């Protein structure tokens, strides 16, 4: 979708409790999977928690908790 820029932040960059709004996706195939799970552009997400070693992570999105690997979270670009 959008090409990554140097100052682009992703969900993987969020700190626990930090909120952001989904802007776009880096990976078209992964974006289809994420869209089906409620990660729509314009949706607010917040990082709920991380596993002890930092992977996977748990996001609050559209009223529920969504767990994913950091590599997947890195494909979600946020403002």
TrEMBL record:
Keywords: Iron. Gene3D superfamilies: 2.30.30.90. Residues 9-79 form the Ferrous iron transporter FeoA-like domain. This is Ferrous iron transport protein A. InterPro entries: Fe-transptr_FeoA-like, FeoA, FeoA_core_dom, Transcriptional_repressor_C. GO terms for molecular function: transition metal ion binding.
């Amino acid at each position: 979708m959008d090409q990554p820029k140097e100052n682009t932040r992703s969900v993987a960059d969020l700190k626990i409790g930090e909120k952001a709004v989904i802007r776009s996706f880096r990976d078209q195939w992964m974006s289809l999977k994420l869209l089906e799970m409620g990660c729509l552009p314009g949706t607010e997400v917040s990082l709920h928690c991380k596993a002890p070693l930092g992977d996977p992570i748990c996001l609050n999105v559209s009223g529920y908790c969504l767990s994913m690997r950091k590599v997947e979270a890195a494909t979600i670009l946020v403002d």
